Amino acid sequence: MMAGSDRDTLKRAAAEHAVAEVVDGMVLGLGSGSTAAFAIAALAARVATGLRVVGIPTSEHSAALARRLGVRLSSFAEQRRIDLTIDGADRVERRTLTLIKGLGGALLREKIVASASDRMTVIIDETKLVERLDGRVELPVEIVAFGWETVVDRLAALRCEPRLRRSGDAPFTTDGGNYIADCVFDAIPDPAGLEARLSGVVGVVETGLFIGMASQIVIGRRTGVEVIEPCGA
Ligand code: A5P
To answer: How far is the CA of 34 from the centre of ligand 1 (A)?
Structure first.
């Protein structure tokens, strides 16, 4: 088991590698989570020395961090397309570059931003790269608050163990005012099929499966930074 501070060193290395590819004038998607926070900090350091970019944040937390560090923010009201999104992930399947995201609860905005991006760079430490999505896979699924009990029952019928995410005594609430059901699967051998089945459940807003969205994965390893891209890229 790697210590938290060691993982942070790897996350920071991946984040800094990704931010080095940012050029003047870009519209950037700003991810959420601890690895994306390292990227926002690295970006702010470059902005302080003259880089001109605007960021569209994927969470209120990332928006506040960017504002505090001096990164100019924009929104979809002003920009319809994003040149590059830099975001973290909870798991990445090496074979397909399918991502699982949402343990931080920002998956809906993250997916909207990723979908509007020409490129998405995913930054992770080496512990998150897996050969296959198996061995108890936890998949966050954002659901509407109304009738969540019945939505969770229908998710359970898809052969998983769903658990409503809580924050203290109350349900955890996303930036969009929705709830999260963390669904544990034995394995996810067919991400696209599962995505279709989950999306067919009334009350599901979005899933944490990001399929075919990553343009590259930047992995912080103890031996250095590794970059992998989709086959044929
Ligand atoms: C936020 O909703 C998530 O999708 C994050 O991108 C993911 O949980 C990674 O977070 P860390 O970088 O903190 O591990």
So the answer is: 7
